[in-house]
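Q: I'm writing up a methods section and want to include an example of the input and output format. Could you take the sequence below and give the corresponding predicted structure tokens, formatted cleanly so I can copy it straight into the document?
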Amino acid sequence: MSAPAEPSASPERNERRPPHGHILFRAPPVPVAVGLIVLVSAALAATLWAPQTRPFEWGFVLSTVGPALVAGAVTTPIAKAVGGRFEWHRSLFLVLSVLALQLPLAVAWRGAAIAWPSSVPPLLFLGPFLAGPAFWFRHLSLYGVSRSSHTRMLSASLVQPVLFLAGFFAITTPTVPALVAGAASLVIAFVCALAVLRASDRPISREFHSSGVALIRPLLDHVVDRDPQATRTLEEFFLRTTVLATVRVTLLTFLRGDRVHATIALPAVHPGPFAALGASDLPRKLDEILGPAAGTVLVPHTPSDHDLDLPSSEEVARVGAAAVELLRSLPPSAGRRASPLVSPYPGSLARAQLLGGIVVVVVSQAPAPTDDISYSVGDRVVREIAREGGPPVVLIDAHNSYVEGQGDVSYGTPIAEKLVTDVKAAVAAATAAATDGPIEAGVAARSGYSTARDGIGPEGVRALVVRAAGTTTGYVLIDGNNLVVGAREAILPELLKLVDAAEVMTTDNHVVHEVDGGINPLGERCLPPRLAREARAALEAAVADLGPAEVRFASKEIRDVKVLGPGYTARLLTSLGDTLSMFARMFPASLLLLLTSSLVVALVLK
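A: Here is the clean output for your methods example:
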């Protein structure tokens, strides 16, 4: 096989915060947003008009809350009319954000006017001064979230600042200099917004020849609505720079009579990159493709990393079709020979169990950090065992002890060499411990979890129990992205109350990343004690399901599968980091430039 080259249920919550921020901010509900708009509008109106002879109520209605509520109501239909999308709750939140930006600027202006009355332009110029930042912020937001077109989004961007100016001048009676200052402030705001967007878009545009800002709207639509068109747009972005690889698909099945009762599906594919794009959410996708004919499906993590992310739904379908083909043409059983789940020696990274002539090997570095095992490492050891006359090997990366930035196993490293040695020793130990006899298997699945509440993906918690060679072994697979350090050690004792040997694994499903901006490991949201209870409940159900089983094994290779390839994720993350860095610099700098320029214009024209 060839592959890309190795690059040199109850809502319990953790008391500590996850180490990563949310990747997508949730706008407040409409009633909350409206209430906050009224409060901030009142504060802004008080800042602008309370000391004046005009009634405060007129200023509140005409210049703050009135324009804000109208803008919140009309931004959505305006955006839709020009080919964009901007939901009502986002529209109201944008209005609220603009008011929150204007309020401290107005307070600073009025404070300066009290301290230095002869140096600060009169109140007539405060409205134009505040209109610029409102336009600047709205255009940045609408260009990214609604539609990346400056000309089309101008009308939606201008509605709140123009209404604000109209209300402001209705109270103050404008002069020509004040009108000129207002127009100049809006022009300067547009230029500053353009500079931020151009600079922020440059890293991704330079590396991938595509606008990163233009992907914000499809990303929102994919995450929130699973919009097919948005999904296609994002996957087309990934497809532009793919490489071809040969991908192996392996099935280990447990039959009762002539029906498959359970299937362990092991494609050499990494379940990323993000949300449900490409191979992300692979366990659910593969389960649905295999269908009821495969019984209860478990999709553990195989030795693979982001080099083997599939970029599109079409490539996932190819892998799924190969799995279906294998399921329909399973070869005869390799026999009834089986062993317990054994470890060759203390400190081994691998434990193995022979089942019907096939050796299942589970690799974990826990309690040390355990993360992705490079495909090349896993492929090497499987091929070496085959060359040495050993049995077929099903290699599983337990992926069950998370420390950020640690635990990867790369080709040629000391830990990779130890892994190869330990896997070979584990296979030999399982083969030596095997005896002829009946094999029983039981399986169970628990669902109904929430990614946001529990950090558990749609496949939930699944358990497989195998009784053979006088022992009972339990495998628990949780659909999520790794376990926090110590969670495995909290779960295993509960499992060992039911079986003689056990292991807990995760799928590394990257669908959980759309809730949390980082890894979102299991144990951050659903605490280890509850995870242990859920795992034990699944295992109890699997034990109750035990029955005579026949083990069958099938494997095939698919050529010319498009994958993201070596270095893609590093390039993308570097570009995103550069984008965020550039935005972090340009955002305050452009706002400062806007405020300074608008103030200079006001001082010249006063």
